[in-house]
Amino acid sequence: MFSGILINKDDNGQTVEVAQIDEAQLPEGDVTIAVDYSTLNYKDGLAITGSSPVVRSFPMVPGIDLAGTVTETSHPDWAVGDKVVLNGWGVGEGHWGGLAQKARLNGDWLVALPSAFTAKQSMAIGTAGYTAALCVDTLVNYGITPDQGEILVTGASGGVGSFAVSLLKAAGFTVAASTGKASEADYLKGLGADTIIDRAELSEKGRPLQKERWAGVVDSVGSFTLANACAQTKYRGAVAACGLAQGPDFNTTVMPFILRGVALLGVDSVMAPRAPRLAAWKRLAEDLDTAALDVIAQEISLAEAIDAAKGLLEGKVRGRIVVDVNR
User: Fold this and answer.
1) For an engineered disulfide with 94, which of 56, 227, 285, 295 has Cβ 3.0 to 4.6 Å away?
2) Number of domains present in the structure of the chain
3) Torsion angle (degrees, nearest 10) of CA 92, 93, 94, 98
4) Quick one: 109 and 28 in the same domain?
5) What would the pLDDT profile of 217-246 be if each residue is shown by its tens digit?
């Protein structure tokens, strides 16, 4: 038996609890992992609270991230004792995830824990940091360079935004951080932000073409914020879009794209192939100051995760939540 958060649903609605789970209930997979740490992401908050139907089958163990040690394997790439990390792949939605002491998974979904990080540090990074690294790689691979001007990061005090600010600064960029929380200015400047922008400047409907401001953008917000970011991006600049915290709508025109050659580049972290995953973790290992993780992340126990999920959706959480599944 092992402990885990278990979500069930019947005609009376959804229930969620920390339960004792029989190992025989674990789903199919060729690698079994003793989980050390998981995280709480926005999607986990939706799953645990039932606020959005992200869970596709029941019962479900949520948790889109995990770090742990291989205990059983029939996969050629992994041996017992290997330290591994998982992000995405529909885990915590359609396949049992990381908010439990054990997990059984497809070995193709795993990457080796970088030697630069402990298991706890890798989860302080989690999908948020990994997605931020994908976004930075996307802009750099497109050809955006520091000499071209400022990079805007929207939702900067959130998980993805916090890491994007830090990674962009490490890559030599000048960073403008957009946030709705004036109290987070010192936090963001400590991560590397050069300028703080009030999100109100971007969050309402604006003109389809505005004054050119940004060489590039990392956007985790969507909706009017994304539309305004595109409208303010410089000629032949690029916008890496990875989230929808404000909403999934995107009300704009083609003008930024055909008059300024702006590129809107979608970034998906869930099903990303192995090569960009490894590149993202390489960037994190080389460029991320691990001291920043102490500022970005807070640790809670498995028992505290259910209540913390509610606070996450209410916007009461800064940065990252790491879950020690063994306490």
Assistant:
1) 56
2) 2
3) 0
4) yes
5) 999 999 999 999 999 999 999 999 999 989
